[in-house]
From TrEMBL:
Protein name, entry field: Cytochrome c oxidase polypeptide VIIA
Lineage summary: Eukaryota, Fungi, Dikarya, Basidiomycota, Agaricomycotina
A cellular component annotation (GO) from this entry: mitochondrial inner membrane
Location (main, coarse): mitochondrion
Regions crossing the membrane: 14-35
Keyword Ligase: no
C-alpha cells in the first residue's frame, strides 16, 4: 500500500497563507485607522477647541 505523493500542496498553502495574512493585515489597519485613530483625534481636537474657547 503506497502513499500517493503530495504535489503542489506546499505552494498552494504558501500562497493561501500569504494572501490571507495580507488581507487580514490590511483590513485590521483600515479598521484601526477609521474606527479608533480618527475618532481619538476628533475628540482631542474638540477638547483643545473647548480649552481655547474658555481662555477667551
Amino acid at each position: 500500500m503506497a502513499i500517493a505523493p503530495i504535489t503542489g500542496m506546499l505552494r498552494k498553502r504558501f500562497f493561501f497563507d500569504l494572501s490571507f495574512g495580507l488581507s487580514v493585515g490590511v483590513t485590521s489597519a483600515y479598521a484601526y485607522w477609521y474606527l479608533h485613530h480618527l475618532h481619538t483625534r476628533t475628540l482631542e481636537q474638540e477638547y483643545y477647541l473647548k480649552i481655547e474657547r474658555e481662555k477667551m
